[in-house]
Amino acid sequence: MSESQARPLPPDDPGRRLIHARPNDDASLLHVGLVGDTYTILVGGNDTGGRYCLIDMHVPPGGGPPPHRHDFEELFSVLEGQVEFTFRGERLVAKAGESVNIPANAPHGFRNTSDYPARLICFCSPAGADEFFLAVGDRVATRIAPSPDLGDAGRAAFVERAKALAPMYRVEILVP
Hints:
CATH class: Mainly Beta
CATH topology: Jelly Rolls
Strand order of the largest sheet: 8-5-10-3-2-1-11
Distance between the termini: 48 Å
């Protein structure tokens, strides 16, 4: 389509509202504990017509998800600390101020290999990760509240529950 044939912009949708997320003091935000990590849903898919979601991730030392893949794009920006990403078997370390884009369907995972908590912002398009995290995680009080201590048996049960629910959210957990 040439510029002269460009379609006009659709009208504004007054039903959509401005979102101002304040992760440290907004009591309406949802904080989800996921096997040690805490994820705060800053902007959910319900707020964006499913176009994207934005998640603030607090990842303690040793934290991070198991290897997985999904059919949505994922863009991480490291705000604090450093995180080791594994992408299609290759490893790289991303430090504060750096960003990593994971293409849809690619196997990946990440782990905080440092001695200090890491903080990431995760942008997913289209949305869906937010709903998956809410379905499998435990609600916690704040952005940095620890997840409930599950112990070895609880961690195994969590992984099995996540694996069972994952297909409903276009996610595949890649652990036996």
